[in-house]
Specification:
The chain folds into 2 domains: 2-91 and 161-178, Nucleotidyltransferase, domain 5 (2-Layer Sandwich), CATH 3.30.420; 98-157, no CATH class. Helix content is 28%, strand content 24%. The chain is globular, with a radius of gyration of 17 Å. Helix 3 crosses helix 6 (163-169). The protein has 6 helices and 10 strands, in the order βββαβαβαβββββααα. By secondary structure, the chain is of the alpha/beta class.
């Protein structure tokens, strides 16, 4: 089974092509280059989009716009290729890449996303000697370490929600249209009142 997986919910977008559990290729970039990365993965694996059996997409929480980009691309590809998919939490993928670690994603506005999922201030994250991974752990390193966290150095791959991990967490494929984003809180942009 050939699976395309990607996550664009954080500042670092990841994509991977996986065949029957074997990683054929993985890329790390930005959400704006996702389709270029997908094309490169297919070329690298000498595969065609028509060979695809399913799509796994990161559902956040993370950037509102980044999460929407990933879901929109997943829906467009699924419609064009006639495949199904599944959504995987970005927090779950981070946790899968660092067994026993607490995933912490930068939520901006002085907050982080943690399992629950919920948005909290870094000062209220209970670390108690745990390894913390993710963009929020890096951004709020000093605060989290003061509360007992152990944070790997910047550049450690455990800080990235790798798409190959999303693929490994996927179980049953279904309609892509049924996949819902995990936002945790309201978007910053509000409609103008008439």
């Amino acid at each position: 089974m050939l699976i395309l997986a990607f996550d664009t919910a954080t500042d670092v977008a990841t994509s991977a092509l996986v065949s029957d559990g074997e990683l054929l290729g993985e890329r790390t970039s930005r959400a704006s280059t996702l389709l270029e990365d997908v094309d490169a993965l297919f070329r690298q694996a000498s595969a065609r989009p028509a060979d695809l059996d399913g799509i796994v997409v990161g559902t956040g929480p993370g950037s509102f716009t980044g999460t929407r980009v990933g879901l929109s691309v997943a829906r467009g590809l699924a419609l064009a290729l006639g495949v199904e998919g599944v959504g995987i939490s970005t927090l779950d993928a981070l946790a899968a890449g660092a067994e026993g670690a607490l995933p912490v994603i930068d939520a901006r506005r002085g907050e982080v996303f943690v399992p629950g999922p919920e948005a909290r201030t870094p000062e209220t994250v209970v670390a108690d000697g745990r390894v913390c991974v993710g963009s929020g752990a890096l951004r709020y390193r000093e605060v989290l370490e003061a509360h007992g966290a152990d944070i790997p150095p910047d550049g450690d791959p455990r800080h990235v929600p790798r798409a190959a991990l999303h693929a490994s967490l996927a179980r049953e494929l279904g309609p892509i249209a049924a996949i819902e984003p995990v936002y945790v809180r309201e978007p910053d942009a509000k409609p103008r009142e008439a």
